[in-house]
Amino acid sequence: MVFEIIATVANLGALTVIGFIYAAYVKNLRTMNSLKETQLKVAEQNVKLWKDKAIELERKSPEFIEKQLNERIKIREEEIERLAKDSDNHVEKISLKNDEIEKLNEAVNKAHQYRKSISVWDRDERDFIEIPHSELEQKPIGSLCVDSASLMICDPFYLKMRDEQEKEDFQTQTKKYKVVETGEFFCTDLNDDYTDMELLGLDEELTPEQMLAMGLIEEVEYSGNLPAIESTYIKGDFIDPERVYRQVRHYSFLNGRVGAGISISLGGDGVYPVSVESYKGELQRIIIDI
């Protein structure tokens, strides 16, 4: 019994010693592992440091610089190639635009020539044709002496027409109107196509009835007496103090219709040359140089 107690105590003592030895061994292993981890970190830092130094030295080497330059040269060559393609494309576009400009200039020249052309009656063609102004023959035919600072253009027949004949030819009774913008009077039938509204500063495509509805003209009181408009009557005294300084005056017939004649204020007296333009001997235009 005593022997068993001694053996048990001895075994416990041995196990205790073994436990201490094992604990010391484990602690030593942990210490060694921690040291190795520290050494590994130091080694990694040293490797990174030397790697950075190697990269820095490599960048300073001629081979690295040459490589970098070659890459930049390649990029520039690609850019130059792209710009060259763009340049070719731009040259083509510029050429197309120049062609368009040339065509537009041709159209402008044709329009300019057309504007300078004149429509004349060609007796050979028996039709109206457009010809350049340069094909008209111009020659002087005389001069006009002016002492009233104005010039009158009319058919002398209207000035010499007998009163009886005039009343017979212009007996139609019409209404009297006034152009709102200019204050000029005229007489017409609302359905009359004869009145030249363009001369009165109105749209010739509008009928008097339409202009009346638009407020461009207004009806004025008319007693029916003849001449309908005394201030512009072709056989009147032509005295109109309110319009004496007007540049253009339209003379009217007995019934107040415009078209009997026209007078132009010249701004002064003098002698004014007159010439005519003709085409193939046919009179086309009369020019009064004022």
Percent helix among the residues? 40-55%
Mean pLDDT: 76
Strand content range: 15-25%
Give the tally of β-strands: 11
Q: Whole-Å distance between the termini?
A: 165 Å
Secondary-structure element pattern, one letter each: HHEEEEHHEEHEEEEE
Low-confidence stretches: none
Q: Going across the major beta sheet, what is the strand order? A: 3-10-11
Radius of gyration: 56 Å
Structural class: alpha+beta
Shape: elongated
Largest sheet, strands/sense/barrel = 3 strands, antiparallel
The number of helices is 5
Tell me what you see in this structure.
The protein has 290 residues and is α+β, with helices and mostly antiparallel strands. Among the domains are: 59 residues; 116 residues, no CATH class. It has 5 helices and 11 strands. Strands 3-10-11 form a 3-stranded antiparallel β-sheet, with no helix packed on it.
Provide tags for this entry.
290 residues; single chain; three-stranded antiparallel β-sheet; alpha+beta
In summary, what is this structure?
The protein is built from 5 helices and 11 strands, in the order H-H-E-E-E-E-H-H-E-E-H-E-E-E-E-E. The radius of gyration is 56 Å and the shape is elongated. The chain is an alpha+beta fold and 290 residues long.
What's the helix and strand layout?
Elements lengths: L1 H58 L2 H54 L1 E6 L4 E6 L4 E10 L3 E5 L1 H5 L2 H7 L5 E5 L5 E4 L19 H7 L2 E3 L28 E5 L5 E8 L4 E10 L2 E7 L2
Antiparallel strand pairs: 1-2, 3-10, 4-9, 5-6, 5-7, 8-9, 10-11
